[in-house]
Amino acid sequence: MTQFLVLRNVLEGHKELPHEDPHGPLVARGLVLVLVLVLVLGLGLVLVLVLVLVLVLGLGLVLVLVLVLVLVLGLGLVLVLGLVLVLVLGLGLVLVLGLGLVLVLVLVLVLVLCWGCVEFKKS
Question: Residue 21: what pLDDT?
């Protein structure tokens, strides 16, 4: 579309180039804002999770840090996979966010089940 506008401006004798699409930078800023928000909220959630597991449930700090590391790596993998699906394959953002949410919930469920099995075998 921009090439057509440049051609039209040249044919009409205008020397100035057409303006860029104003929504392009806005969408990029919005995506960066969403990524930063997810990162900040995710780190806050991880910190709260560590405090709850260590202080309330009395779990060892090493076990909690291993669980958090697995959770963070899983969330990072989901985020990278989501970006690949949106940017490379062109899938919708809502669909990818839904898939990411399902994957995160499954990951959390698996971690809780593993922790429950370990605690059950201890007692």
Answer: 54
Query: If you ran DSSP here, which 8-state letter would residue 56 be given?
Result: I
User: Pick from 68, 70, 23: which is nearest to 46 by CA?
Assistant: 68
Distance CA 96, CA 78 (A): 10
Which SS3 state, helix, strand or coil, does residue 17 take?
coil
CA distance 65 to 45: 14
Torsion of CA 10, 14, 15, 21, to 10 degrees: -80
| Whether pTM exceeds 0.70 | no
CA dihedral (36, 37, 40, 42) positive or negative = negative
The domain locations on the chain are 2-122
